[in-house]
Design brief:
The chain has 158 residues and is an all-alpha fold. The protein has six helices and no strands. Bound molecules: heme C. Heme C binds next to helix 2, helix 5 and helix 6.
Length: 158
């Protein structure tokens, strides 16, 4: 090592920087299934938390936070974007509530995901429009869409 020319040293450090920069990508490709499962469950928990927050606002329980409706709707938009990507091959075992059907019926799973994603967009749009009745209706449709996917693709909750 001590014999290396400075030119080589430079090339070596460039390589090290390149390796470091590519690290997150490499780590993504080699994620442990249990980390992917934990990650997607956290994304889903965030969906549940945002939906709960929206429900409390719509029920008039926390009028002082009604200005945050849009934030929560955008949170659900983000959390329902391309859900199938959270269920790659090999993440179907371990501590997961996902049913085998997620991997057996990829087309059906994607259809449910796209539907929910569209309904989250519609809710965000309704919130921006400000019509209370429309917001209630879009919220109900979104909530039904979440449930429709869970019914077919998630283990029944006790
Ligand atoms: C395309 C299907 C699909 C859609 C749409 C969907 N989910 Fe899920 N959800 C799942 C699956 C599958 C699981 C189980 C994941 C696991 O355990 O690996 C899950 C898990 C959950 C969990 C439990 C997370 C935990 O581990 O504690 C919550 C809460 C949840 N979803 C809320 C929602 C809400 C709210 C929506 C709608 C805004 C939604 N989901 C939309 C498929 C879906």
């Amino acid at each position: 090592m001590r014999m290396r020319s400075s030119k080589n040293k430079k090339a070596w450090s460039c390589f090290a920087v390149a390796a470091l920069l590519s690290l997150p990508v490499v780590a993504g490709a080699e994620s442990e299934p249990e980390d992917i499962i934990k990650y997607r469950q956290n994304v889903m928990k965030a969906n549940g938390a945002n939906m709960g927050a929206i429900a409390a606002i719509l029920q008039g329980k926390v009028p002082e936070y009604k200005d945050r409706l849009g934030d929560h709707a955008r949170g659900v938009q983000a959390g329902t974007k391309n859900i199938p990507a959270l269920f790659p091959d090999g993440s179907d075992f371990g501590d997961t509530e996902a049913l085998e059907s997620v991997w057996k019926d990829r087309a059906g799973f994607k259809k449910r995901s796209d539907d929910t994603s569209k309904k989250a967009d519609a809710l965000a749009k309704a919130v921006a429009g400000g019509d209370a009745k429309a917001i209630q209706a879009r919220f109900r449709e979104l909530s039904d869409s979440c449930k429709a996917c869970h019914k077919d693709f998630r283990k029944e909750q006790q």
